[in-house]
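During the first year of the project, the team set up a workflow for recording each protein of interest as an amino acid sequence followed immediately by a discrete structure-token representation. This format lets reviewers and collaborators read both layers of information side by side without switching files. As required by the reporting guidelines, we include two representative entries from the current panel. The first entry is reproduced here exactly as it appears in our internal archive.
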Amino acid sequence: MIDKKTNIILSYIVLGLLICSCASKQDYIGLYYSEDDNINFVLEEQNFLITNTKGKSNSPYKCCDTISYGNWEKVKNNDFIKISSPNNFNTNVINISVNEYLNNSTDSIYLIINNPIENHYKKFSETYRELYYSIEISSNNTDFNARVAQMKWNTNQIQIQKPKGLIIDEITIVIVPKSDMKVRSLEAKIIYTSPYKVINNKNNSFKIELSSLSYQYINLLRLFDDFVKIEKESLIWNKKIFKKKT
């Protein structure tokens, strides 16, 4: 049977362990740097950020200095932490916003796809295009669905001949970046939009906004429960040592 004095001592021990545990997490927070690779690894209270610090001058890349970001948490034995990217990075599924309307030329389906990469082409008058688009359609015509799914376009303005009596239920856009896209790392090899449920089956024109489809989104390293080893004043990740800046 535990007496009152022993109980008080145990309470102080538990409290001390809790304080140490909180303090140990605070000790991790800071900026770490890999001199060999010019990479910064920042740990904040709940988030992490990994960036390339090499200068942008004469760089052949359009993007990006940010290698990855997301959340981190301690592992129980305190020798490691786990880092994970946002969920939508790991699934490669992005949101879609659509404005649908009826075009007078009713023998075709028209799609205009806008996103930050297409905006970049316009801004800098670039003619070489780095994205392929495919369209997945759910309709009352399975042969048409299958035929369209095999097509791909190297333009954001798409016209598809429409069979008579076609009723479209859903549209999904599939994006495939070209292997020569000028990003530091091509991490997203194929990207899907969430399916769009057509509001009015009579409409045949769809203006599509993909605000998340950027060079950075394609470039970012996808991480899920990646382990980072904790050593005194340093981190070890991806076979690299990051020393804490003081």
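The second entry, processed by the same pipeline in the following quarter, appears below.
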Amino acid sequence: MELKIKSKIFSFLKFAGFIAACVVTSIVVIAPLWLFASKKPELYSALVLAAAAIFVLRKIIVSAKKAGVKRSLFFAAKLLVVAAGFLGAYFSLVFWQRILFIVSVIAAIILFQILCRVEKNAKKVRA
């Protein structure tokens, strides 16, 4: 019986400690960020985007070192083709250019297929 009470008290203290940690974190970290974001939203947005871009670039560089240069270049080229296809499709839809939409989607698909086949042939030659 006494063991159950101690266990429940310990569980309650762990929960209370978690709540206290959340409160302290919100006061120490979140409140200054919120104040900064509300006072200078343009600068805050730019800094957050820059931090996100640095994080993504770091991840890309680390994974490129692991994968190798040729494979990374093919990945980057395919990523650019897909991004260009999406952007072309988006802007052609925004400006009501249906023909350009079809052309951009078809061109992106064809270029992606070409890149995939070139990469596949490069692997065969290497092996």
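For the second entry, the following points were noted during internal review. The mean pLDDT is 81. Residues 29 and 96 are 46 Å apart (CA to CA). Both points are flagged for discussion at the upcoming steering committee meeting.
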